[in-house]
Amino acid sequence: MSLSFAPASDAAIPLHVVTEDGLKDWLGVQPAAAQAWISAQGFTGGSGQAVTIAGPDGHPAWAAIGTGNTNSRKRSRFHLAAAASKLPKGDYAIASGLDPESAAVEALGWLLAGYRFDRYRTQSALLARLVAPEGVDSAQIEAVASGEALTRDLINTPASDMGPPQLEQAARDLADVHDARIDIIAGDDLLEQNFPMIHTVGRAADHAPRLIDMQWGRSGPKLTLVGKGVCFDTGGLNLKPGASMGLMKKDMGGAAAVLGLAHMIMATGVPVQLRVLIPAVENSVSGNAFRPGDILTSRKGLTVEINNTDAEGRLVLADALALADEDKPDQIISMATLTGAARVAVGPDLAPYFSDDPTFVAALEGAALAEQDPVWRLPFHDAYETMIEPGIADLDNAPKGGFAGCITAALFLRRFVTESPYAHFDIYGWQPSDAPARAKGGVGQGTRALLGALGPLLKL
């Protein structure tokens, strides 16, 4: 699908953006017939409202959409997207009411409102197209929208069609588009090249586990993205109940997010040396599945006691993070649908992240606000380090008690990065119900904020 702007044209329908607070003043300067029609339609400038005014030929001559009041705007985002689906077919150009500070985000929201996951079922397209508002970087916005669409498509695709081989192919396709280099280590080669935990987690599945390594750019700061690619998670021998397994096609949401972010970076030409590492596995049940009580030796040499085979994501990420750290990049960022504890802490809409770097935090928080891509900082709380030290091995993959589960998982991952600045995102990757610009289903989280943060973070 193409998430792109309509071409600028004199035939585009003028579109006025109206707030509830400003409705009276705006309505007062409209022709009397238009005032009567707008009032008769019950248009109040409320969030998500739309109204069209017909010309002499019966076709829309101009239109208006509402963005609500100050309070409602605090409670939601992508206000133009909320009304886009209510407009009749046509190309629309903003005529008034959209402030320059929010134009780019609102335009992006409109494009994202046109996303449809139609691989398995035909779906009606968004009929109203937007002409890029004056002053925005339309190419940048379209690149971000296509990166987000890639993330959503990958997450929405069921494991029957998105196992490790298909995730590898998606990475290869992206590498081809951007002339990136890609290398795959799969099956028993993982053992020969010292990725024992990736191999162990994925060895019980029919599809061989693999490590995807994509690289792009030959100058600039080094940025390494590591994404959890567990294409389906049964829980292993610590089998999940059916209700908990229902959404496990999205357990590769971290991989989908970093691939979407990688597309945004490459498509917009961010001057970095980008590396994307994805351990792609299925956590399955078979006679050779790893067991509770096993002790694994990681690529970094740290030993890990397995107290729950359903805490597998941190194991595959650990080997990939160890490899990332060996290159000593300027920044390592991991993204993963890692813990239910993160969802309990902040819900599905916020992307929790961990960082001890004030520069990273300031850059990310500023970009998250500007891009309306909400994040929330959680602590690498050093006092909890003892919770991941079982005594019999260096680390415990699933500390007992259940307290601070997302923090202990982040502390576990941090043990495998000792030479490089590191940040970790424990995302949900799923929109539970339809919202403006965010259809129910897979969704990117934190990626637009990260894209916006790269400049100040890496001094580009």
Describe the secondary-structure layout.
Blueprint: E1 13-18, H1 23-28, H2 32-40, E2 50-54, E3 60-66, H3 70-75, H4 79-84, E4 90-96, H5 100-113, E5 128-130, H6 138-156, H7 164-178, E6 181-186, H8 189-192, H9 196-202, E7 210-216, E8 222-227, E9 229-233, H10 242-245, H11 253-267, E10 273-283, E11 295-297, E12 303-305, H12 313-326, E13 331-336, H13 340-346, E14 351-354, H14 358-371, E15 375-378, E16 395-396, H15 405-414, E17 422-426, E18 430-431, E19 441-442, H16 447-458
Parallel strand pairs: 1-3, 1-4, 4-5, 8-10, 8-13, 9-10, 12-16, 13-17, 14-15
Antiparallel strand pairs: 2-3, 6-7, 7-10, 11-12, 14-17, 18-19
Helix pairs in contact: 5-6, 6-11, 9-12, 11-16, 14-16
Please, could you describe this protein's structure?
The chain is of the alpha/beta class. It has helices at 23-28, 32-40, 70-75, 79-84, 100-113, 138-156, 164-178, 189-192, 196-202, 242-245, 253-267, 313-326, 340-346, 358-371, 405-414, 447-458; strands at residues 13-18, 50-54, 60-66, 90-96, 128-130, 181-186, 210-216, 222-227, 229-233, 273-283, 295-297, 303-305, 331-336, 351-354, 375-378, 395-396, 422-426, 430-431, 441-442. Strands 6, 7, 8, 9, 10, 13, 14, 15 and 17 form a 9-stranded mixed β-sheet that branches. α6 (138-156) runs antiparallel to α11 (253-267), α9 (196-202) runs antiparallel to α12 (313-326) and α14 (358-371) packs across α16 (447-458). The model has no long low-confidence stretch (mean pLDDT 97).
